[in-house]
Amino acid sequence: MTGPVTELRRLLRETMTFHDLPDADSYSIRELSEFLNVSLRTLRFYEQSGLLKPTRQGSRRLYSPEDAERLSVIVTLRELEVSVPAIKRLLHSMDQTGSLRDVRPELTQILAALESDNSARIDELTRINSRLGDARKALTS
């Protein structure tokens, strides 16, 4: 497999919390759910959001290796707290242009903003913990 999603998956590989899927012609929703440690409901939500388009055999969803690769990128970005609309926009751009190059600056900016937000949250939680400690001390003295 080649293409922008493959390239993005390769770049994100170190941040993924799961291993490569075993090779197969297709995967069931349950197999992907268990492998990626996400709920069936989450996978259905990604489909309803337009992030995935598995084929159907009756009511059964079948995911291609390309779908599984795309899903691993989606799950990784969500674990990093990238919003679903941002992921959808990034994937759509990659699908349209056939290139990761055009979305790299936007993705880098999104990740930098999230990192900054997390640092601010850590600072706020540190202040709250300090106040909690002060309150606990006041109650035990």
Offer a concise description of the structure.
Residues 26-93 form the HTH merR-type domain. The protein is mostly helical and 141 residues long. The chain has helices at residues 4-12, 29-36, 40-48, 65-79, 84-97, 104-140; strands spanning 27-28, 55-57, 60-63.
Task: Describe the 3D structure.
- This is MerR family transcriptional regulator.
- It comes from Methyloraptor flagellatus.
- Pfam families: MerR_1.
- GO terms for molecular function: DNA binding; DNA-binding transcription factor activity.
- The protein is built from 6 helices and 3 strands, in the order H-E-H-H-E-E-H-H-H.
- The chain is mainly alpha-helical and 141 residues long.
- Strands 1-3-2 form a 3-stranded antiparallel sheet.
- Helix 1 packs across helix 4.
- The model has no long low-confidence stretch (mean pLDDT 94).
Could you give the distance between the termini?
A: 65 Å
CATH class: Mainly Alpha
Poorly predicted residue ranges: none
Would you give the CATH topology? Multidrug-efflux Transporter Regulator, Chain: A, Domain 2
Structural category? mainly alpha
- Overall number of domains: 1
Count the beta strands.
3
Radius of gyration, rounded?
19 Å
Mean pLDDT reading: 94
Element order: H for helix, E for strand: HEHHEEHHH
The biggest beta sheet reads: 3 strands, antiparallel
Helix content: 55-70%
Count of helix runs = 6
Strand order of the largest sheet: 1-3-2
CATH architecture: Orthogonal Bundle
InterPro entries: DNA-bd_dom_put_sf (IPR009061), MerR-type_HTH_dom (IPR000551), MerR_fam (IPR047057)
Keywords: DNA-binding
Protein name: MerR family transcriptional regulator
Domain HTH merR-type: 26-93
